[in-house]
Specification:
Elements: H1 14-31, E1 33-37, H2 38-57, H3 60-69, H4 73-86, E2 95-102, E3 109-115, H5 133-157, H6 161-184
Antiparallel strand pairs: 1-3, 2-3
Helix pairs in contact: 1-2, 2-3, 2-4, 5-6
Length: 185
């Protein structure tokens, strides 16, 4: 939630700042991307993300809360029907700020703030060698050792021998992949 600022506001008093941020948010939702100064964009981000969170909830109460901030019903309708479904799986981070350079007249830092509407891609877990991983790696190596004994017992039983060896094979491969990582250190 946006926290109140101390010191000078954007363009004057607090009411003018609130209305200006509401208009910037309406433009952002209408055009999906706007070009503005860096200060205004940084102040707009929490307001816009809060409105998108209201839209993701989608009930009447949150629609009325959003209408209290942005008075334009067409913008709120677009936010709730078009933008909210596109960011349904995203857990925050609905906007992106990209620096563009400086404005010619007053050398103000200009940025482009845009909605992040791309689908969320699951990041693959990267192997990072840290000290925190060493204690976690030790129990992982012990776990397959415990699984091998039940697998041998299951193969002695007969009918389920093929299923048990198939489960034991991936368990044996896991320590083999981790062992070279420890040797390279």
């Amino acid at each position: 939630m946006p926290k109140p600022t101390k010191g000078p506001r954007l363009g004057g008093g607090p009411s003018h700042e609130r209305l200006m941020l509401a208009n910037l948010a309406a433009s952002l939702f209408t055009h999906k991307s706007i070009k503005t100064t860096e200060t205004k964009a940084k102040r707009l981000r929490p307001v816009a993300e809060r409105l998108i969170t209201f839209a993701k909830k989608g009930d009447l109460h949150n629609r009325r809360r959003a209408l209290g901030i942005i008075g334009d019903k067409t913008v709120i309708h677009e936010l709730f029907t078009e933008i909210a479904p596109l960011v349904a799986e995203r857990d925050g981070g609905y906007t992106r700020i990209t620096k563009l350079g400086f404005r010619k007249g007053d050398n103000a830092s200009m940025v482009q703030i845009e909605l992040v509407l791309e689908p969320v891609n699951a990041k693959p877990k990267a192997k990072v060698s840290t000290k925190a991983e060493k204690p976690a790696a030790a129990p992982v190596e012990e776990a397959p050792v415990e699984e091998e004994a039940p697998a041998e017992e299951a193969s002695a039983e007969g009918a389920s021998a093929e299923g048990a060896t198939a489960e034991a094979a991936p368990a044996e491969e896991a320590p083999a992949k981790e062992a070279p990582a420890e040797e390279t250190k």
